[in-house]
Amino acid sequence: MSRRARPVATLDRLEAILENGAIYELAALIPETDRTHGGRPRQYPAFVWLIFEALLSVYTSARQVEAELSHPLVWDLCCQKIRTRFPTDPSKWLPARPMRRHHYLYARGRYLTDPAVLAALATLHRQIAADQARELGLLDPNGGGSWTHPDLSRMLHADGKVITPLFKAKPGDIHLDRTTGELRPAQYEPDAALHFQGDGETAWGTKFVIVAARNGDVHGRIILDVAWVPKHGGEAKTAMECFTRLAPLVPGAQGVIYDTALRGVHHQTLLRDLGLLPVNRVTAAKAGVNQPRRKDGRREEKSTRLETKTITLADGSTRNVELYARGGAVGIGELTERGDLHYTELARVRTHRNQDKSRKYRWYNDYRLPENLGAGIVTVRLHGTPEDTTRKLNRTENVRPIAATDPDFARLYPRRNDAESINRNLDDTLWLRRAHSIGHDRQHLNLLGFALMVNGLALHRHRRRHPAALAA
């Protein structure tokens, strides 16, 4: 991926949105106006509302979208693109007068944020986005990689994003009207809450989880799902709901890259129920500081005893070894003469997955033993069982299929940076980095429009580079 990629022209983004077939498929879900008792017909086709919504992420505000569309060259381009797409259906052609902001606001309040319509739009968007991802070569069931060495093109990555509210006030704040001298309740975001970020800082706003996949191209990103986090501390639960409903749509996915918000109980669901590899770090027993002094402030990895394994040595004799997990890696623990635990990490050789009769998945890692123990293979289960619960061992909290010290972790985990890139890119599409609207339902719609813009741009550039694939 080039570090000096050229910025994308605004008209290129506009063309990408107009050529994104998802907009026209989604528009079919918007109900028609009930005209049994009269009323004016719609001045614009329903898909123009979604085009306007996606353009918010290009021009940063609805007022600016209206201003740009009012330019004759821009509106003529829109009219030509729509006529080219629907050459034999004049009912879908655009009128001569450009769409205005008040048209969009009426459609947003009357149709697009209706709970049933918004849910249907989100569901269909996930299905279409999964197909678009495969067109870009992502999440291909026949793609490269294996469970031992997953391919980045077959990994999902996600993160939580707190959107700064349109208003700074919080519930209960009072505003002084300097003209009348009256004290009035200040306007505030009713769905905002205080959320903790990964760096320990707090953020006030509305939180969403965004799930994506990407290839090696600069704009090769597809946003697969967007979901609101309704409660403080509910990011992991919302993320798991996203992965659960995406799993049947992306059978080629091999794993999930996330931060430490996902804990052992979530890893158990990913492994056993969804058959996906979780790639993230184990939370530290003691977190480090930015500038440690000697041993004070250094990160201390979480460590726990796993099980006893009986191995066969080269001379045919057997020996029991104690397996420990430290920082997600598996190794052998031996007591020294002083009673200290000497830990030797084992190298991962293979990760394999089997499906049992209950349609759940069983996961195992094969590790190479050291030379002094015969250099054989020892197999360790990755998922938890009732026996672990009886022993009070949270296996999935302490063991990672791909630990932070594994070479594949260094190749896979940096993809999480793209989740941060999505968050920054989203901020750049917001006027003064504040939400476009008030309320989680409207902001959810705004994020769907953002996804339509991002996905449309990825497809637009991919099809330009591979016109033969489009013709086929």
Tell me what the structure shows.
- With 472 residues, this protein is of the alpha+beta class.
- The protein has three domains: 10-112, no CATH class; 137-281 and 408-418, no CATH class; 303-399, no CATH class.
- It has helices at 10-18, 21-27, 46-59, 62-69, 72-85, 101-112, 115-135, 235-246, 264-274, 386-391, 395-398, 407-412, 416-428, 440-465, 467-471, and strands at residues 155-163, 174-176, 183-185, 193-196, 202-214, 221-228, 255-257, 277-279, 303-312, 318-326, 329-335, 341-345, 347-355, 361-368, 377-381.
- The strands form four sheets. Strands 1, 4, 5, 6, 7 and 8 form a six-stranded mixed beta sheet that branches.
- A hairpin with a 5-residue loop joins β4 and β5.
- α1 (10-18) packs antiparallel against α3 and α2 packs antiparallel against α7.
- The protein is elongated.
- It starts with 9 loop residues before the first helix and ends with a helix.
- The mean pLDDT is 92.
